[in-house]
Amino acid sequence: MQQAAIRINEEEFQPELLDEVPPRWNGPHVGRRLCDAMRTLAMLPMGGGGSAAWPAYCYEWDDLLAQQAQGELERTQALQNRIRLLPSSREVQRMEAAICWPAEYLAPLAHLLRAVNAVALAHSLDRDSGWIAAKRGGYADTWRERHDQGCDIIARGLRSCRVSVF
Asked: For 127, phi and psi rounded to 5 degrees?
């Protein structure tokens, strides 16, 4: 068996870092950090009061046999065996800082505040501004423009407050 050698010049192959930190805050980087904050927030455990040490439901042998007959046993076992990945303390710290930016810097501009939060949430769910337009009305381009304007305003505010870039 013969293997082909692949040669790639350095000029042709320039891997881009997905999370390259710019030297100073800019609108796209603010949008990325807000999206990361929404993802981190979704990863946090949201308890409804006390913690449950027992499983949600105790299955008897007859229950397991009935589930196997219906083809539901594998799904039930998968739900019982799932693990939840928790965010690191650094991710939580960044989320706590970033989650307040829209309210802090866009309070008088409610239409931009809503757009920044909505588009950041959509991006954290791997959706686009068209998804927001379908849910809330309006046009996807308008939601995207307002999000970009709001992120630029937040970036200017972060630069003026000398917040370090992360």
From this structure: -115, 175
Q: How would you label 79-107 residue by residue, b for 16+ Cβ within 10 Å and e otherwise? A: eeeeeeeebeeebbebbeebbebbeebbe
What whole-number distance in Å separates Cα of residue 131 and Cα of residue 134? 5
Percent of the chain clearing pLDDT 90 (strictly above): 61
What region, left, alpha or beta, does residue 133 occupy, with left being phi > 0 and alpha being psi -120 to 50 degrees?
alpha
Candidates 94, 122, 117, 95; CA nearest to 106 is 117
Using DSSP's 3-state secondary structure scheme, residue 119 falls into: helix
Hey, what are 81's tokens?
């065996």
Two tokens, residue 105: 């810097």
pLDDT at residue 100, as a whole number? 95
In 3D space, the residue among 106, 108, 110, 98 whose CA is nearest the CA of residue 35 turns out to be 98
CA dist 45 and 53 (Å) reads: 15
Would you say 13 and 77 are in contact if contact means Cβ atoms under 8 Å apart?
no
Q: Is the pLDDT assigned to residue 37 strictly greater than 50?
A: yes
Which 3 state secondary structure label does DSSP give 156?
A: helix
Model pLDDT, residue 160: 96
